């Protein structure tokens, strides 16, 4: 089955981009209708983070989120199997690209927008530096091999696994290999910090600050936006006030700046992730490991629980889409210490 999926993706690489994006619209609607548990995750995330939206607005934005997710998923066909010239034409590298010149240590803050793979590909395809990132192995060996081959196709990227630990990542940073880091997810409360995200405490791995300090590196944000022509990968100016000596303040600042980036394209953020699954002691729960806790409209922001239940499991044959697109990992860094 997995080989059939990979084979289909190879064939889809030959389609015009407009056709592929329309297929993504259809797939997004199917996923929205079938994967009920993940749809509920998206809606709870949106209600928590955009409390002024009406029910109808949350539903409409949720549908767009699934469409963007599906379109990005299908875009892997040409990112990983299209001709290099075609990939180069569809990926526009813009902004403060000069921040990546030379050999100075750089941590790239790459938030979880749906174009995360396009951003990685644009960097490894167009720039001469040797980039690194952290990778979570897929449970299926065929899919794992496909992910690895796609992300290493242009030969200038290295993917560190969780079992590699922190030392080789820091060593690569210090010798001048930029680290493409996606730290804006909840990987559990173990060594995470609870810092505000849209005004709500969210377990956040403080890896951006830690790696920047350990690698003696500057932090450069990279934001990837899906467009009709492909993707625009914008390199933003380096943060001049980061990192500091305060891990909590750094992680709080990261989330604040992330909110500004999300505000320009909320439908392209990775809302399928259970961002608020873990809660500080004494605060209400919004999500569980098995599903979602349902809240009344007002209860999402004021803590008033009206009713709770566990949502159904994903439909048979449908992948757990919360991990189907990413595969990048940041939880390796929780063992890192400043120094």
Tell me what you see in this structure.
The chain has one domain. Helix content is 40%, strand content 14%. It has eleven helices and nine strands. The strands form two sheets. Strands 1-9-8-2-5-3-4 form a seven-stranded mixed beta sheet, with helices on both faces. A hairpin with a 2-residue loop joins strand 8 and strand 9. The protein is globular, with a radius of gyration of 19 Å. The C terminus is likely disordered.
Concise description?
This protein is α/β, with parallel strands linked by helices and 339 residues long. It is 40% helix and 14% strand. A 7-stranded mixed beta sheet has the order 1-9-8-2-5-3-4, sandwiched between helices. Strands 6-7 form a two-stranded antiparallel ribbon.
Structural class: alpha/beta
Content of β-strand:
5-15%
| Mean residue pLDDT | 85
How is the biggest beta sheet arranged?
Answer: 7 strands, mixed
Instruction: Enumerate how many helices there are, as a single number.
Output: 11
**Tally of distinct domains:** 1
Are there runs of 5+ residues with pLDDT below 50, and where? 293-325, 330-339
Tally of extended strands? Answer: 9
Helix content: 40-55%
Order of helices and strands: HHHHHEEHEHEHEEEHEEHH
Taken from the alpha-carbon principal axes, the silhouette is globular
The end-to-end span amounts to 47 Å
Report Rg.
19 Å
Strand order of the largest sheet: 1-9-8-2-5-3-4
């Amino acid at each position: 089955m997995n080989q059939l999926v990979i084979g289909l993706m190879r064939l889809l690489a030959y389609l015009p981009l407009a056709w592929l994006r329309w297929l993504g619209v259809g797939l997004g609607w199917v996923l929205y209708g079938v994967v009920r548990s993940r749809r509920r995750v998206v809606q709870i995330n949106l209600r928590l983070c955009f409390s002024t939206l009406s029910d109808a607005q949350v539903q409409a934005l949720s549908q767009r989120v699934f469409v963007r997710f599906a379109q990005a998923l299908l875009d892997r066909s040409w990112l990983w199997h299209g001709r290099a010239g075609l990939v180069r034409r569809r990926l526009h590298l813009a902004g403060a690209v000069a921040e990546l010149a030379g050999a100075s240590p750089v941590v790239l803050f790459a938030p979880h927008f749906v174009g995360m793979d396009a951003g990685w590909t644009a960097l490894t395809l167009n720039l001469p530096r040797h980039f690194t990132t952290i990778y979570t192995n897929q449970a299926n060996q065929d899919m794992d091999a496909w992910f690895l081959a796609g992300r290493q196709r242009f030969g200038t990227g290295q993917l560190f696994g969780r079992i590699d630990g922190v030392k080789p990542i820091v060593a690569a940073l210090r010798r001048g290999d930029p680290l493409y880091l996606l730290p804006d997810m909840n990987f559990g409360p173990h060594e995470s910090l609870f810092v505000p995200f849209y005004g709500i405490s969210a377990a956040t791995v403080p890896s951006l600050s830690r790696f920047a300090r350990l690698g003696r590196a500057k932090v450069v944000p990279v934001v990837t936006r899906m467009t009709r022509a492909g993707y625009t990968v914008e390199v933003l100016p380096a943060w001049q006030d980061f990192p500091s000596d305060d891990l909590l303040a750094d992680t709080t600042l990261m989330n604040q700046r992330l909110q500004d980036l999300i505000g320009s394209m909320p439908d392209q953020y990775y809302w399928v992730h259970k961002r608020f699954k873990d809660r500080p002691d004494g605060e209400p729960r919004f999500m569980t490991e098995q599903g979602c806790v349902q809240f009344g409209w007002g209860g999402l922001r004021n803590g008033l629980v009206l009713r709770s239940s566990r949502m159904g499991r994903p439909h048979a044959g449908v992948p757990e889409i919360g991990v189907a697109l990413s595969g990048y990992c940041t939880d390796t860094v929780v063992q890192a210490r400043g120094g």
